[in-house]
Amino acid sequence: MKVALIGFGQAGGKIVDEFVDYERRTGLDIFSSPIAVNTAKTDLRGLENVPVDNRVLIGQARVKGHGVGADNELGAAIAEQDIDEVQSALDEIPVHEVDAFLIVAGLGGGTGSGGAPVLAKHLKRIYTEPVFGLGVLPAADEGGIYTLNAARSFQTFVRETDNVLVFDNDAWRQTGESMAGGYDQINGEIVRRFGMLFAAGETVGNDQVAESVVDSSEIINTLAGGGVSTVGYASETVDRSDGGLLSRVGRGSEDAVVDDMEEANTTNRITSLVRKAALGRLTLPCDLSGAERSLLVVGGPPEFLNRKGIERGRSWVEEETGSMEVRGGDYPIPDSETVASAVLFSGVHKVPRIKELQQVAIEARENLDQLQSESEDNLDKLLNEGAEEIAPLY
């Protein structure tokens, strides 16, 4: 799948930087002219892989390159004002080769949470390609302002995109882990999962062809319909010393029993990995029952992949979600030492974290209204008291 990748804000830029590194390491060609947009010069300078010409600084007239200080209303206003600067960078992307846009943003900060929905609305107005979001929710210990920003931004981001793939930092930060180390580990997890998902169906410099190809239309159709998505992932190291199943094909009838055993092992491994991916730690923890659409991808050495395992995995996902709209396929990676499964669940509804954010937004609005009312009353009282003590000028 060919993706036009745009990182908005500090977290979005760093994740896009990781995606570019992933693309280079794997030899893939899936991200078209990746762009990083920010209001802070230092954040853009800290990127290592996004080309310098693709780093867009906005808001110079208002914040002088110093960021918006976690003010997502200011971030949205700057994005609206400087959207033409972002569009100038987008004009360099060969959109005719692109299957979809992907806007990556941390929803707790100011620039990303404010600007990402603005950009999504702009892209949908101009282009016919689908616009997806990859939104990162802040951990609870990152501070109340970041949770409030996420609560404010999340619904808008979902409304303005065709689907938002969510990664919840709160479910992934480890106790006692440093802030920098935690974010590095989290960004690696994000890239591993979503990189494998978007890479499915693309060539990796070899002539291996998947038995059941996952093409871009299947990914797009799984994400179609809007809403929120989560991804699960599981992997297992394999022993390639015996050559695997395919090396035995055609050898002779005396090896038929061994062949059947290897095929059964391959099938069971794939089915097990699909279950582990779905029931393990999701990018956004949720109840999978009721998920509207799903897609599973199993990648690894071709000799350790087979259609039967994927079909069984799909059947299991259908039972787990109660949905018949489950797609799937394999992703041959000849040089890999592991077999991995990524499972995308789209249109999930039973998400405790989202309900928590919605409640935060409601309580914050009530508190702000109350504080504003008290502030106005206190100001009136102060002015009235002062007026009684000050003698008239004439």
TrEMBL record:
Coiled-coil region: 354-385
Which GO terms of type biological process are on file?
regulation of cell shape
Whether Isomerase counts among this entry's keywords is no
Record carries keyword GTP-binding: yes
Q: Which GO terms describe its molecular function?
A: GTP binding
Q: Where does this protein reside within or beyond the cell? A: Cytoplasm
Sorted alphabetically, which PROSITE patterns does this protein's record hold?
Answer: TUBULIN (PS00227)
- For the ligand (GTP), the binding residues are 10-14, 110-112, 142, 169, 187
Q: Which InterPro entries match?
A: CetZ, CetZ_C, FtsZ/CetZ, Tubulin/FtsZ-like_C, Tubulin/FtsZ_GTPase_sf, Tubulin_CS, Tubulin_FtsZ_GTPase
* Domain of life, source organism: Archaea
Keyword set, alphabetical order? Cell shape, Coiled coil, Cytoplasm, GTP-binding, Nucleotide-binding
Chief place where the protein resides: cytoplasm
Per the record, its GO cellular-component terms are: cytoplasm
Q: Which Pfam families match?
A: CetZ_C (PF21011), Tubulin (PF00091)
Q: Which residues form the Tubulin/FtsZ GTPase domain?
A: 2-225
Q: What does this protein do?
A: Involved in cell shape control.
Family membership noted in the UniProt record:
Belongs to the CetZ family.
Which PANTHER family does the record cross-reference, listed alphabetically? Answer: CELL DIVISION PROTEIN FTSZ-RELATED, TUBULIN-LIKE PROTEIN CETZ
Q: Return the protein name.
A: Tubulin-like protein CetZ
Annotated source species: Halosimplex aquaticum
* Gene that specifies this protein: cetZ
